[in-house]
Amino acid sequence: QRILGEACAWSKLKHPNILGLLGITVDFDLAVSIVTNWVERGNANHYVQERDNDPRPLVKDIALGLRYLHSRPGGPIVHGSLRGENVLITDDGRAVLTDFGLSFLYNSAFAMTTSPLAGGTLRWMAPELVSVMPAEDPQPTVEGDIWALGMTALELFTRKLPYHN
Known about the structure:
- Helix 3 packs antiparallel against helix 5.
- The N and C termini lie far apart (41 Å).
- Strands 1-2 form a two-stranded antiparallel sheet. Strands 3-6 form a two-stranded antiparallel sheet.
- 31% of the residues lie in helices and 15% in strands.
- It has a single domain, classed as Transferase(Phosphotransferase) domain 1 (Transferase(Phosphotransferase), domain 1).
- By secondary structure, it is an alpha+beta fold.
- The protein is built from 5 helices and 6 strands, in the order H-E-E-H-H-E-E-E-E-H-H.
- A hairpin with a 2-residue loop joins strand 1 and strand 2.
- One of its GO terms (molecular function) is ATP binding.
């Protein structure tokens, strides 16, 4: 039910920097699967490894996608798992946000939470969220998404993971 609620909420998101949802299916081992557009150029982290690919337009696209999510009329949608691997590059070089499986919808009938560590996002996590661990499971926030945007920009410009040393 949670996945169906998430898919319903995601299907209402229409923005050039958000990966579109085509539908859902249960045709694979009776598991609910989300169907999206195929994005052939891979993720942003991989894309910028080719030195000719400028990260600046990607960071702008990511920021525009986040602004859209954070300014929804029903309340902000917090991505909660932003990093280069969760940004895909379209055929025309546009960055689109994806991996809403770890998102947190505030003020929504489809409210959901999952651990931000489930996707290994510690390197992109805001200090105030890290500081409550392991005593409690930190809840993703808009402010945390902004921190993750900065860490993703760092990742794309340096072409290395944050805190790679």
